[in-house]
Amino acid sequence: MLPTTATASAPPPPPAAGAATSASSPGEPHDALLLALGYMRLRDLLACARACRALRDAVAGDPLLWRRLTVGPPLSHRITDEALLALTDRAGGRLRSLHLLGCPRVSDDGLLRVVQRNPDVTELFVPRCSGLTADGLVKIIQFLHECKGNLSHVRLHGICKMTNDHLDVIKSLICRSSQQDAQALYYNHRVHEVLNTDDSRPIDVDVCPLCRNVRLVFDCTRKDCREVKDSWTRCRGCFFCVARCETCGRCIDLEELGETGLACSDFLCMDCWLKLPKCSTCNRPYCERHSNLKENLSPSGQFTCQECTAYATSLESLGNGY
Ligand SMILES: [Zn+2]
Ligand SMILES: [Zn+2]
Ligand SMILES: [Zn+2]
Ligand SMILES: [Zn+2]
Ligand SMILES: [Zn+2]
């Protein structure tokens, strides 16, 4: 599930529709609905505000609803600096957590204006916001530091041209504890798609020990790798430097890669590869994430991959041409 909650991250309680006994007067929203507003995703909250005047006032008039703002798909591609400023202004200067997940239209200037009005922000998540720059983010984090704010968590992966120097400055400006730094990050495709919600490290990116770029750097889940210190450092690296199993996150060597072909473009270790059902023509499995691509799926689990199906179809149409 994409973390698009506007406020709390807990799932919303069941709606109170049908509970006719209410302390509210007729035509007014039920009290339970007003309570539920605090658990709604941004999109639902905005839809609710359009339902009637009472709800609009309830949504607009409660700054507490806006202290934690998450803008995720599908709103992320539409939100502009002005819209973001209008939304964050609803917190009345008390915004604490701002998660912008892949919002390309938000600029450095726009985000700076938001933090200038909300200097108490403690969480600033801007992964894959392609309109932001490393220089701009340093300036924004510097501003929060000068305001004696408590910015303690940032998520920056996918920000272009982030260098070691940028990262060093950001590290020096963030409130952090050494315990949080020690936490490992394991590869998981979800890291790329949405934020890893279990990750309590202050900064998500690091310098890849292999290519020296600032990226998400994964630790190995393989027990042998973790026990042998040398080998662990060898397979600690970014997505581009170390091939990892899509399912369990452990490193995969070249030999293993050659033996574990997949019908999708991911990689699996031998253990995870062996467990999966294979295409009845080419004997390649799909990873769990792409299992929806199976064609001609039979009740017994037999299937054909898309490539083999396309090949069979093209042969058929060739045959029909003669
Ligand atoms: Zn690397
Ligand atoms: Zn595996
Ligand atoms: Zn490893
Ligand atoms: Zn196949
Ligand atoms: Zn896959």
UniProtKB/TrEMBL annotation:
Residues 17-26 have a biased composition (Low complexity). Residues 29-70 form the F-box domain. InterPro entries: 4Fe4S_Fe_S_CS, F-box-like_dom_sf, F-box_dom, F-box_LRR-repeat, LRR_dom_sf. Residues 1-26 are annotated as: Disordered. It holds the Pfam family F-box-like. It comes from the Eukaryota. This is F-box domain-containing protein. It comes from Urochloa decumbens.
